[in-house]
Specification:
Length: 283
């Protein structure tokens, strides 16, 4: 999957170069930047000024607004909140909140999932959760070119439990079904039923073999992706920030060089999509 993403990014960058500004001076980022440049995935840039991260964020904001760079990636050596705050200045029209997803790749590279919201919204409302699900479906399809199948996760499957949290998830599903009836989705649903057809059948539902997992809150999503990464050996790429007109992406402080390279390639795909949308708006 990552190889395919890189190849697509290289084609885009060859046709219309993508300038990505990196804000970290971390050695992992510098090594990744050399790979990104050598493989022609994008054009990596760094700030020459020796200033603190807050000043770098302000410079990055100005460079994005002036189209001096196409995207910004930061977070390898500082808190995610700075990248998220920067992204607020570049939200798409009709998008109310920024959210962040992780692309999760299994150790054998055969399975790809998207987890959200792992980065931005602590306790999303039903409407916020519905927006997170929609943006995550867009992100998954953009990255993988596969049809998203969304599971809105809970501790309950179709009313097997009770509580405010599952009511929120159920309401989010109703909002999505009303606005986007063609999306493949289920909720509220437990993770095992969302992923395992045998378990889904035992619980009296038809499995959708979900590939986009929407968690009810930031606690569950962030803990969930880190457990899968650390205990299951899955590669976690992100956070991939969603709903932006100019791309800002974040890095986990536990990221590896290959994660940074992969996120850069994904960023190129996002920039290309934003360029397309901008052309449509101008017509």
């Amino acid at each position: 999957m990552i190889l395919k993403i890189k190849k697509r990014a290289c084609k885009i960058n060859k046709r219309n170069p993508v300038k990505i500004l990196f804000l970290d001076e971390d050695n992992r980022v510098k090594r990744a930047a050399r790979i990104i440049k050598r493989q022609k995935i994008a054009k990596p840039l760094f700030l020459n000024e020796k200033v603190n991260i807050e000043k770098k964020i302000n410079l990055a904001r100005l460079m994005l607004k002036q189209d001096k760079v196409d995207a910004v990636i930061s977070g390898a050596s500082h808190s995610s909140i700075l990248a998220i705050l920067l992204s607020f200045d570049f939200m798409r029209k009709n998008i109310n909140h920024v959210s962040g997803s992780f692309l999760m790749i299994s150790p054998d590279k055969k399975k790809v999932l998207l987890f959200a919201d792992c980065a931005a919204q602590p306790d999303p409302s039903p409407r916020q959760l519905a927006e997170i699900a929609l943006l995550s479906a867009e992100t998954f399809e953009l990255i993988t070119i596969k049809k998203p199948r969304i599971a809105l996760l809970s501790y309950s499957t179709h009313g097997s439990g009770k509580g405010k949290s599952l009511q929120k998830v159920s309401k989010a599903l109703r909002i999505l079904k009303k606005k986007y009836p063609k999306l493949i989705m289920k909720g509220e649903i437990q993770a095992d039923a969302a992923l395992n057809a045998v378990i889904a059948k035992r619980k009296g539902i038809k499995s959708i073999n979900a590939n986009v997992l929407i968690f009810p809150n930031l606690d569950a999503a962030n803990i969930g992706y880190k457990l899968v990464e650390q205990l299951g050996g899955w590669q976690a790429i992100g956070p991939v920030l969603q709903g932006l007109s100019k791309q800002v992406n974040d890095l986990s402080r536990g990221c590896k060089v290959e994660d940074i390279v992969a996120l850069a390639a994904i960023t190129v795909l996002q920039v290309n999509e934003q360029r397309k949308n901008k052309k449509i708006e101008r017509r």
